Amino acid sequence: MAQQVSAFDAQFLNFETPTNLAHIAALTILDPSDRPGGAPAREELIELLRRRLHLAPPLRRRLVEVPFGLDHPYWAEDREVDFDYHVRELALPPPGDGHKLAEQVARLHGRRLDRGRPLWELYLIHGLAEGRMAIYTKVHHAAVDGVTGAEVLAALMDFGPQVSDTPPPGDAAEPQRAPDVLEMVVRGVARVLDNPLALLRFVAEAVPRLDEVPFVAQLPGVGRVSRFVRGIGPDTDVNLPELPRMVVPRTPFSGPISEHRRFAFGELPLDEVKRIKNAFGVTVNDVVMAMCATALRRWLVSRDELPRQPLVAGIPVSTRGQAFNGSAANEVMLTMTTLPTNVADPGERLRSVNRSMRLVKERLAAAPAAWLLEFSQAMPAALSALAARSAFRIASRRAPAMNLMISNVPGPQSPLYVSGARVVALHPMSVITDVSGGVNITVFSYDGRLDFGIVADREMVPDVWNLIDYLRDSLAEYGAMAGPAEPPAPEPRRRGKKAAGKATEEVTEQATGKSTEKAAGKSTGKPPGKSTGKSTEKTERPPKAGRSTRAGRPAG
């Protein structure tokens, strides 16, 4: 029988409106210069997808609604997929630079997916500079989370330029069909009758942790109620670390969003981020969060809109292995943390991020977040859509749950290829809503780099490319505070007899015994993790080191 959409995943369908869209995407940039025959054509991508469709089940699933909305929809599998509809092709007007690409992708990202078909689209984009091309792929969040979305994208990719043959298994199962109308109605009625029991389960399991639920946590008295219930409940709940009450300040990107998007992307070296995290004794994610805090602080200062309170960021957390049943496509939950944009000193800003994230981890370690997957079960499916939209309207106008979303998704650290063309960058794109704010910063680590993708509301953040520049500035600032990088180790001197066919410079080096490597000088940098007391934040001007040569120029 077909898999039913879980109550949690159904919320991504329920809150969707013409402005609040619920799909995630990826912008993959390809370099086909070393591919025999040049750039892959649309027909080749369709054939590749056709052969590998069994590796990406979400690409052949479509929604089947239950009559009268009595229950959550089902996923039915199509035997044939209309690739002519789902795979499209376009070209950028010259010059095909990063800004033109981002404008086009932002327009595509602002369009709603057709719910009468499998919830995905793929665009092959020609006309990029240097002979490159791009693939924009979007999938509905009800079908995938950030990790499974990357897995779906990986179905197109290989670890080498040779396209591997991945035939479907010989005993492939028949496509799963949705139940007939009568069965869906009967199941829906049974779920409604079971709802009082679901409500009791919710009270027992969720109330002790209401201070973790976005929007609900902002309501007065919620923290006291949660602490009281934990105090009379099991000992495991008593020991939960206390979360501070997070007041969500108003920013230029708070409130109802429009139908239109802006997008900016860039790349930063992962090795430099790791060097900084080692120097300060923090994590890679801490450095990324601190860089985001710095970029947002400088953007807000430039508009004279910096709040006195820290921003509140929503952070997706993986719950893989904790799902309460096998029906949840999304195995990721949302937690919140403060983002110290109100802290002027960059070193203290990074340490503050480290403390906040450590508290979140301790809380999740003491009691895993899988219970949140059952949060939506407490309400009848027939009322879920109405409740979700009503909550969005109230939250966006009165008490937003957070200022923005920040997500960091791990990826492969070796080169990938699509139909023989090398993937040179993979920039993620995610969701902005009335409740989560008009900015979303998502990071994907790939092949020694951090690929950033920033989605913003077009009117709220018209200068979204400045955030990419500020991220680069922040990395340069933290790199300087961490001290000079270690010089590369000298190559070992070659020994032994001269071999025929060796290059002349190798022969010379062996004959003279001289090395071309210079001795590394001693470091005069400050001890890592300590502030110099002369932060550029006093004037709110980004440091000169690391600035791009042209504002808004995408890395690479």
Automatic annotation (TrEMBL):
Residues 330-477 form the O-acyltransferase WSD1 C-terminal domain. It catalyses: an acyl-CoA + a 1,2-diacyl-sn-glycerol = a triacyl-sn-glycerol + CoA. Its EC number is 2.3.1.20. InterPro entries: Acyl_transf_WS/DGAT, CAT-like_dom_sf, O-acyltransferase_WSD1-like, O-acyltransferase_WSD1_C, O-acyltransferase_WSD1_N. Gene3D superfamilies: Chloramphenicol acetyltransferase-like domain, Nonribosomal peptide synthetase, condensation domain. Pathway: Glycerolipid metabolism; triacylglycerol biosynthesis; Lipid metabolism. It is an enzyme of class 2 (transferase). The keyword Transferase applies. Residues 481-556 are annotated as: Disordered. Keywords: Acyltransferase, Glycerol metabolism, Lipid biosynthesis, Lipid metabolism, Transferase. The keyword Signal does not apply. Residues 6-288 form the O-acyltransferase WSD1-like N-terminal domain. NCBIfam families: acyl_WS_DGAT (TIGR02946). PANTHER family: O-ACYLTRANSFERASE (WSD1-LIKE) FAMILY PROTEIN, WAX ESTER SYNTHASE_DIACYLGLYCEROL ACYLTRANSFERASE 4-RELATED. Belongs to the long-chain O-acyltransferase family. This is Diacylglycerol O-acyltransferase. The lineage of its organism: Bacteria, Bacillati, Actinomycetota, Actinomycetes, Streptosporangiales.
